[in-house]
Design a protein that fits this description.
heterodimer; A: alpha/beta; Transcription Regulator spoIIAA; 6-stranded mixed beta sheet; 6 strands; B: alpha+beta; Heat Shock Protein 90; 5-stranded antiparallel beta sheet; 5 strands; 32% helix; globular
């Protein structure tokens, strides 16, 4: 499992490869917070290569969403497969995040 | 004429795993239990969502909440899988807790922006049944039992 960060224009794109779970959530949080401290405002997390997400992983997304909003930024999500969509729907987190079906649509939505 | 392969109906897989109170072990335990479920043709959503997420929550609760990451305490996981259902017992060495009292409705508007508190809710949403009982023969400890019928 790993997190890859790259820039697409003004947008910081994070690819989550493997699981986003209690054992690695801090790594994702720190990577995004480092970018936020550098002044980045627009963030996209892409789950195209993600396996499963546990409640700690969901919690870190909620936490990042708040911190980014506090700095006047935006966090969007893309490429949730059917199972990840179900997870977000079960917890109603689909109402908290702006979620796009594809990376391109998410990038265009900023 | 070659004999047809035996049906899976008579197969049962039992596993016992013991781990330290360290979250780094969770993913491996999940894979150890997910594998026989895949062999016994549990459906794709159960393999990708119900089984790994509910298991991850149960083990994570045992390590973080019950055992408080105490290196002197262990987590014991026992799984029985057959073509009918998966039953997993996750046993900790922590103080007793009340499953109903401690389960928070993650969909309540007051809770949606919380960073924590979704673990028991998800476990119960993703399994057919979740039970908690006292660990047998120990002064302290909980067994959380997860039950999922194959579909």
């Amino acid at each position: 499992m790993s997190f890859t960060i790259k820039k697409e224009g003004e947008i910081v794109v994070v690819d989550v490869e493997g699981q986003l779970i209690v054992g690695n959530r801090q790594e994702l949080k720190q990577k995004v917070l480092d970018e936020l401290e550098r002044g980045e405002k627009k963030f996209l997390i892409d789950f195209a290569q993600t396996g499963y997400i546990d409640s700690s992983g969901l919690g870190v997304l909620v936490s990042l969403s708040k911190k980014i909003r506090e700095q006047g930024g935006e966090l969007r999500l893309a490429n949730l497969n059917d199972d990840l969509k179900t997870l977000f729907e079960l917890t109603k987190l689909d109402t908290l995040f702006q979620i796009s079906d594809t990376r391109d649509r998410a990038l265009a939505s900023f | 004429m070659a004999a047809s392969p035996p049906s899976d109906a008579g197969l049962r897989v039992s596993l016992e795993v013991e781990i330290p109170s360290d979250v780094a072990y969770i993913e491996r335990v999940v894979e150890l239990i997910r594998h026989p479920c895949a062999e016994l043709a549990y459906n794709a959503h159960q393999l990708a969502l119900n089984v790994p997420v509910a298991l991850s929550e149960a083990i994570s609760n045992a390590i973080l909440r019950a055992n408080n990451e105490d290196p002197g305490k262990r987590v014991f996981v026992r799984a029985d899988v057959d073509t009918q259902r998966l039953v997993v017992d996750v046993q900790d060495e922590g103080a007793h807790f009340d499953l109903d009292h401690d389960t928070r409705d993650a969909t309540d508007p007051e809770n949606i922006e919380r960073e924590d508190g979704r673990g028991l809710f998800l476990m119960r949403a993703l399994m057919d049944r979740v039970e908690r009982f006292d660990a047998n023969g120990r002064p302290q400890g909980n067994v959380v039992r997860l039950i999922l019928s194959r579909s």
